[in-house]
Amino acid sequence: MSREYDVVVIGGGPGGYESAIRAAQLGLKVACIEKRIHNGKPSLGGTCLNVGCIPSKALLDSSHRYHDTKHSLAVHGISTGDVAIDIGTMQARKDQVVNQLTGGVAQLLKGNGIDWLQGTGKLLPGKQVEFVAHDGATEVVQATKAVILAAGSEPINIPVAPLVDDIVVDSTGALAFTAVPKRLGVIGAGVIGLELGSVWGRLGAEVTVLEALDTFLPMLDKISSKEAFKILTKQGLNIQLGAKVTGSSVNNGVVTVSYTDKDGDKTAEFDKLIVAVGRRPVSRNLLAESTGVEVDQRGFVVVDNQCRTSVEGVWAIGDLVRGPMLAHKAMEEGMMVAELIAGHYAQVNYDTIIGVIYTHPEIAWVGKSEDVAKAENIDVKTGMFPFQVNGRALAANDTQGLVKFVADNKTDRLLGMTVIGPNAGDIVHQGMIALEFASSVEDLQLMTFAHPTLSEVVHEAALSVDGRAIHAIQRKRK
């Protein structure tokens, strides 16, 4: 007789383990299947904790501290002498952070009475799951209430730049360099490409980013995109837009990349090449053909706005389904689904999901950009304020960037917020909370922001929407 659970979760990443924990908190008997082996051991936490969000942020922080120490402390009167980076120690710290967090997830599952099944899972008809353990043992696990598909995503590989040992790598390989490459190429100027390029650029690599699109960070409006491009290129990232890679080859440890841009065919040579052109859902081998679960042409599992698939009792969340591939989006979907399975009501507000790029300064946004709002024929008004005149930013010698608000000109309702600057990923949450409560710009204008803080830029940007910013000369509104 097969093992029975109320809920079987396939995938132990952020969405999977959070849905498992919440379902267990609601009194359901839960199993979580996870296949990942990291550094020779079974590991929970998915891409995010093992080879994504967490290790990349550990390296970003280390590289920023190194760069800051080498280039920015003298203005504070701090002398450091020769500054060196030990890549081995930096990588060991990254691994320690990963191990602590993934180990913590394992303890959370255990503490909530969840069975962690170490191996692969495939959905069968009738809410059954074929579980294959790492030793090859196979059994069929029965879910009496629901199966949650949370298998995540994987890097997209492209034929024109096939991976080669540790020379041409994807995002996972880029986290494991043992030395700083002299010349680093990055294909893709998206979130992953910019973050990884920033890590190694701060440590001394000459970084060239090849982006096929003619626009930079198209999720931002034109003003914010231009500001981000200016800051990152000033830091030394050589970002080539409209550069379509046509081929690559490796000879004697040197990567030659062929690409075309508006000026014609070109080549560039690198010591390392990172392919960061996006991710795709891990839906292959996840579903038996007879399950009836609908999958679209790109491999995404088709779901409604509460993550139900086309088969009753089968749900899918996170990178497997529509929407941004973000850990926090997967987490909230996982908890929503657990609540729904238990008979409660829950709904994710997809209009207030934050995006963050962890360069320095950080780039963050929530809600509609000015360009999107205008494309939807909304009569908008906007306000913007720079960090360069903020007292707290000046005191910290961290003044790049701005805060921008977009609002409905007729109703004054806040529509969106963009932040480029120090701690942007935290500051943007102020806009997210305002959007969740359907705030007007006036609501923000009437609030008292502590002085001196970076958040005063938020207040000034809100005031600027109506030409009322105090610490900038405002043009009179007609």
From TrEMBL:
Residues 355-462 form the Pyridine nucleotide-disulphide oxidoreductase dimerisation domain. One of its GO terms (cellular component) is cytoplasm. NAD(+) binds at residues 188-195, 211, 278. GO terms for biological process: 2-oxoglutarate metabolic process. Pfam families: Pyr_redox_2, Pyr_redox_dim. It is found in: Cytoplasm. The active site is at 451 (proton acceptor). FAD binds at residues 57, 121, 319, 325-328. Keywords: Cytoplasm, Disulfide bond, FAD, Flavoprotein, NAD, Nucleotide-binding, Oxidoreductase, Redox-active center. InterPro entries: Class-I_Pyr_Nuc-Dis_Oxidored, FAD/NAD-bd_sf, FAD/NAD-binding_dom, FAD/NAD-linked_Rdtase_dimer_sf, Lipoamide_DH, Pyr_nuc-diS_OxRdtase, Pyr_nucl-diS_OxRdtase_dimer, Pyr_OxRdtase_I_AS. Residues 5-334 form the FAD/NAD(P)-binding domain. It comes from the Bacteria. It is an enzyme of class 1 (oxidoreductase). One of its GO terms (molecular function) is dihydrolipoyl dehydrogenase (NADH) activity. The active site is a redox-active disulfide bond. Belongs to the class-I pyridine nucleotide-disulfide oxidoreductase family. This is Dihydrolipoyl dehydrogenase.
